[in-house]
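Predicting holo structure, NAI bound.
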Amino acid sequence: MATALEPTTYTLPKIRQTQLLIGGKWQDSVSGKTFATVNPATEEVIAEVAEGDAADIDLAAKAARKAFESGPWATMDARDRGKLMTKLANLLEDNFDELAALESLDNGKPISDARAADLPLVIDCLHYYAGWADKIHGDTIPIRGNHFCYTRREPLGVCGQIIPWNFPMLMAAWKWGPALAAGCTIVMKPAEQTPLTCLRMAEIAMEAGFPPGVINVVPGYGPTAGAALVKHPGVDKIAFTGEHRTAQIIMADAAQTLKRLTFELGGKSPNIVFADADIDAAVAGAEFGLFFNQGQCCCAGSRLFVEESVHDEFVDKMVERANSRVLGNPFDAKTTQGPQVDQAQFDKILGYIEKGKEQGAACVAGGNRFGDKGYFVEPTVFTGVTDDMAIAQEEIFGPVMNILSFKGFDEVVTRANNTCFGLAAAVWTRDVSKAHRIANSVRAGTVWVNCYDVFDAAAPFGGFKMSGIGRECGEAALANYTELKTVTMSLA
Ligand code: NAI
Ligand code: MG
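Done. C-alpha cells:
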C-alpha cells in the first residue's frame, strides 16, 4: 500500500492560512494556543492552527454584529451581494486544484473525489445562492379594512455555523450560501479535524471583496469554541451539522437565548433493492451509497434491504465490488478509498465491526484495518444482519455495509421506518408504482429512486425525526436565514 505521499499526479498544496479570521483580520487566538491538524493517510501533523475559545468567539460575534448593523454589507443592494457571491464562486474555481488537494490532504478523501464531487458542488452552491440574493421578497396581503399589509423577509442577523469534517468545504458552502444571499453575517467554526479549507475559502472570500466581519472563521474544539458560539447572546442562530447527540447539547445550550436552530444530523438510511430491479445498477448504486467518502456520509445507505429471491446473487456481486476497491494514498489518482478522518473514527468503526461479529452477523468481506499506517479500514460487508443488531441501529460512519434480507413490500416499509432517524432512503425497482409507494411511505427527507447520493444546490436536503430540523439547499434554506416581518399601514 502506498500511504506515504510519494510523487504522484498531484502536487501537495501550500498551507497558507492557519490563523483566525475576525473582522477581516487574520490573528492568533487570544490564548495563543494552537492545535495540530493531522494527515489521516500518514498520521503526520500538517500544520498547527490557532485554537479559538470563548474570548475569540466573543470578538468574532461582535465583528459580525458590527458588519450586520453598519457598514457596506448592511446597506449593500441585494444584487451586489449576489455579484460578490458569484465572484467568490469564480475565485474558488480559479483555485480548484489547490483547494481539491488541500481538502484531500486534511480530510483523507481521494483527490479524485474532491475534484469530481466536493469542489463542483461547492462552486455550484455559491452560484445558485448568488442568484437568490435579489429574489428574496415578501407578499402583499389583503387583510380586512382600509389597510395596506405586506411582509418583508429580513436577514436573520449574526449566524453561528458549526460544521463537521466529512465534507468540510461543501458544508461551509451549504451554510454560507443561504446566509450571505439573505444578508446575514457569519461566525463559522469548522471541525477541529479539518480546518484548513474553510480558512482558505475565507481568505478567498476576502480577496473577492466581502466586507470585514461578514465572514468570520474561528477554528477550535466543540465543547469550548463551539459551545461559546451556541451560548453567545449576540448570535441569533446556530446552524449545525454533525452528530445527533451534539445537537441535543446544542439545543439545551441555546435554550437560554432562544436561538433559532437548524440541524442536519446523522442517519441509518434504508436502501431497498426489490427483485425486479436492474441488479447490476443496484449493486453499483449501493456500493456508492455506502462506501463513498469512506462511508463518512450522513445519508449513507447503511441498512441495505435486499429482497430474498435476489439476495445471494446481490451479495456475490457486492463482495466482488467491495474487494476491488482501491485503498491507498489519496493523492494517487487510482485510489477510490482513503483513510477515515481520525483515530477516534477509526477506533469507533473497528469497534462496530467487532460488535457485528459478536452479535452473529457474517462478515463476508473486509473486517480489519488496512495496512499499518494511516486510519484505513477495509471495505467491509456483513450479511445475516437483523434489525436489532447494533450495526443495524447505530450510525457507524465508516465503510461497513449491512445487508438485511426481506420478503415483501409491507414488511420492508415497516422495517425501513423502524429507526429514530429519517434522513434519506433509496429504492431500486423497475416498477414505477412501487417506487412511488416507497417514496410516499418512507419517513425520510430525501428518497432516491434507482440512484443514490444525487445532490444539487437547488434540491432541499434534511431530516425527518432525529436526523434534523430544517432543510439545507434549495429555496427552503432561505427561510432559515430570514425573519418574516409584517407591516400594516392605515390607508384612512
Ligand atoms: P460532532 O457532532 O461532535 O462534531 C461536529 C461539529 O460540532 C464539530 O465542529 C465539533 O467541534 C462541534 N461540536 C462538538 N461538540 C460541540 C458542542 N458541545 N457545542 C458546539 N459544537 C460542538 O461529531 P464528531 O464527534 O466529529 O463525530 C462523531 C459521530 O457523529 C460520527 O461518528 C458520526 O456518526 C456523526 N457525524 C455525523 C455527521 C453528519 O454529517 N451528519 C458529520 C460528523 C459526524
Ligand atoms: Mg464529538
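The longest helix spans residues 111-132.
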